[in-house]
Amino acid sequence: MVKAAVFASGTGSNFDVIMNTEDLACEITLLVCDNPEAQVIQKANKYGVAVFVFNPKDYPSKKAYEQQIVKKLQEAGISWIFLAGYMRIAGPVLLGAFENKIVNIHPSLLPAFPGKDAIGQAFKAGVKITGVTVHFIDEGIDTGPIIAQVPVTVLTGDTETELKERIQKTEHQLYPKVINQLIQAK
Ligand code: GAR
């Protein structure tokens, strides 16, 4: 079976959902995490998924830590990378080694509200429709060819927390489906 890695920096609810998808078309065999304190690491341990955790400050450059990441990915025989709350911009080393094989999920209808706190940005802007985007990554912040989008309506009286819950629920439904479509299309 095709082997894939998830990259995450935080809670890992998307990682959890991917791991619990019974008909997933790939095997998640590695978690890459840039934050030693991230909750997602405990989740990976629970599932017996190998973890490569690194602190970017321990490396002289992005090039240096990405070379280390690519080494780990190649040793593990990884062919796809799914970013799930990985709050770091990929550089040429990673992008070059996994061309058209790195996918991200973002909690807005890109190109609207890229970057951090996309849900808060949309809420504060007062938009009536926001949503979720899955896209291939490039060297930009939440840019790159869009693969799938699902709108989420901002309801009258919604709190930011309620909106976040609905957006995350939408992410959890969408990401495993898109992962399977991508892998099965190859
Ligand atoms: C998700 O909402 C994901 O879309 C977002 O981080 C959250 C991680 O949640 N990613 C970005 O904002 C990328 N720019 P999780 O750790 O519970 O999966």
Automatic annotation (TrEMBL):
One GO cellular component term: cytosol
Binding site for (6R)-10-formyltetrahydrofolate: 62, 104
EC number annotated for this UniProt entry: 2.1.2.2
Binding-site positions, N(1)-(5-phospho-beta-D-ribosyl)glycinamide: 12-14
Entry keywords, A to Z: Purine biosynthesis, Transferase
CDD domains registered for this protein in UniProt: FMT_core_GART (cd08645)
Keyword flag S-adenosyl-L-methionine: no
Class in the EC hierarchy, top level: transferase
Catalytic activity, reaction form: N(1)-(5-phospho-beta-D-ribosyl)glycinamide + (6R)-10-formyltetrahydrofolate = N(2)-formyl-N(1)-(5-phospho-beta-D-ribosyl)glycinamide + (6S)-5,6,7,8-tetrahydrofolate + H(+)
Domain Formyl transferase N-terminal: 3-179
Gene Ontology MF, one: phosphoribosylglycinamide formyltransferase activity
Record-annotated membrane-spanning stretches: none
UniProt pathway: Purine metabolism; IMP biosynthesis via de novo pathway; N(2)-formyl-N(1)-(5-phospho-D-ribosyl)glycinamide from N(1)-(5-phospho-D-ribosyl)glycinamide (10-formyl THF route): step 1/1
Pfam family membership, one: Formyl_trans_N
Gene Ontology biological process terms in this record: 'de novo' IMP biosynthetic process
Calcium as UniProt keyword: no
Residues at the catalytic site: 106
Site for Raises pKa of active site His, residues: 142
Family (UniProt): Belongs to the GART family.
Role, per record: Catalyzes the transfer of a formyl group from 10-formyltetrahydrofolate to 5-phospho-ribosyl-glycinamide (GAR), producing 5-phospho-ribosyl-N-formylglycinamide (FGAR) and tetrahydrofolate.
Listed name of the protein: Phosphoribosylglycinamide formyltransferase
Organism lineage string: Bacteria, Bacillati, Bacillota, Bacilli, Bacillales
